[in-house]
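Example 5.3 — RNase H type-1 domain-containing protein
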Amino acid sequence: MPASLLRDWSPPSDSRIKVDCDASVHESIQLFGFGYIVRDISESWIKGCNGTILMASVLRTKLFAIWRGLLLAWNCGSNPEDFGCSALEIGLIQRNAIRAADLLARQAVEDNLNYVEWLLPPAFVSNVVLADKHSPVLSS
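Solution (predicted structure tokens):
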């Protein structure tokens, strides 16, 4: 098992920002949801987003969320070096390490949202974002 699968959410290193993304699917209606969050080294919410894509796939939806998350981070005033584009790290991690992004993706499917940007964490995600700040990071 890769070491990245053993970790809870952890803040970015240095002065970088971190983009967490996830996707969700409602197969019977072919609705795919995505969610992502941009946070800084102090674990503060910078911005988040969720929405849906029709007739996609989970992989395509996850890639879409990564792409949109990087664009959102860039539009928040970050340059590529701030989120490690010179050495971009994309990895498979346990869902508990991206619980807030997972909740955003699931809520997008449940509410059939097109595209919503969140300046503050929505109520259904606030407790998870707060819990991330207080959960110990397990070493790999």
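Remark. Strands lie at 18-26, 31-39, 45-54, 115-118.
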